[in-house]
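Pipeline run #58 for the internal structure catalog. This entry was flagged by the ingest filter as a single-chain record with no existing model, so it goes straight to prediction. Upstream metadata was stripped on purpose; only the residue string is passed forward. Reviewer on rotation: M.T. Logging verbosity set to normal.
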Amino acid sequence: MDLLEYQAKELFRQVGIPTLPFQTIYTPRELKRLTIPYPVVLKSQVRVGGRGKAGGIRFVANTIDAIAAARNIFNLSILGEYPEVVLAEARYNAQQEFFLAIVLDYQLRCPVLFGSSQGGMNVEALLDNLQQVVVDTEFSPFYARRLTVKMGLSGDLIQSVSTVIEKMYRLFQAKDLDLIEINPLGVSPQGELMALDGKITANDLALARHLDIITLTNQDRSLSSQQKAVKDQGDLLSKADSEQWLHWQDSKGKIAIICNSWDLAVITWDLVCQRKGKPACCVVIDNSQDSLDFPVASWQQELSKVLTEVEKISGIKVALVNILAEKEVNSIIAQTLVESYQPLEPKTEKTTGEDRSLVANGAKSRSRRQPDNQANSQPKKIPSVKIVMRLLDREIDCLTEDTPQNSLYWTDNLEEAVEKAVSLGKSR
């Protein structure tokens, strides 16, 4: 996962790497309430390189110029990517610019420190002066000092730049990063250092251990444009004792994720993204430490309510249910989901088993006896959102051949459930 510049700088601040005052801008009119004194620099927040040469970085001296520049930046595509946020940052008078990076080398199976005495947009000069130090044993300040010497630094710069490298490595190790980069590291005429730009790549497989990174990338502001879109469709962002709609929203997403713990939510969201799926929203039901605190009978009520709310969100094709619970709870969950998918017409003798086949791994098709008066009851409409559920119990009695084909998919394997949800989300 590649972080945006301002997200990387939020992590820089946690370890004491110096950064300039900045403010995130989501619409040009927000610049009227800018708290950073002019002159400022406006930066397009995209994950691709080449922002400066493409016109994604503008220096402005007043509010009028800033609004005009921000409008241009928001409408500027850089290698096919448009920014959803612009970074407004104080301007810095740098006398020198360095390049620093730490990369996890999978061939060497260890981190490698990189540094260049020529940083910034001049890539050729940067590469001509690039130096590296392999961290082949436990990290110590020796490695940082060795890199600064190879870069040709002298005097107080050896100590100050080494300190920045040590802080970078501390963050690199603590967050299981694949890459951390500062380009450029500006040096003022007084010898003060400042991280003027930053890049971080987090290891996808380690994200479940770092919820702060997940939160940083998905909760950019109190109410993002995607969240407004969801809120306009029924005020669905809610918080209750047993139900929490997370602030992870994507108006272009196709998959709603339903779990019963924060850990499961993070892992499921991550797996869907890894398989090029598009999650739309995520809700946690019963995030209590002890599942016995949540009555079994409440599962049906809460799950039915969540499914109803998911149906209101336009664009969602699949609800991926990933719940780890006791057998009694699993039965309630399965029964609730099956009852949500009654056929449009009552079952007749002409209906074939193929028309009502259940697409589920490991589940045995069983006929379900219906009360005589149910055949005359008003048939329910099949919801537009299909359901993929991952439950660990192999034997679930309520899963029968009455379930419409491809409406409900069940498996006890999370990988299979995610693959199915992503496939259904991409289908037309």
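catalog note: The radius of gyration is 27 Å.
catalog note: Residues 217 and 336 are 33 Å apart (CA to CA).
status: ready for reviewer M.T.
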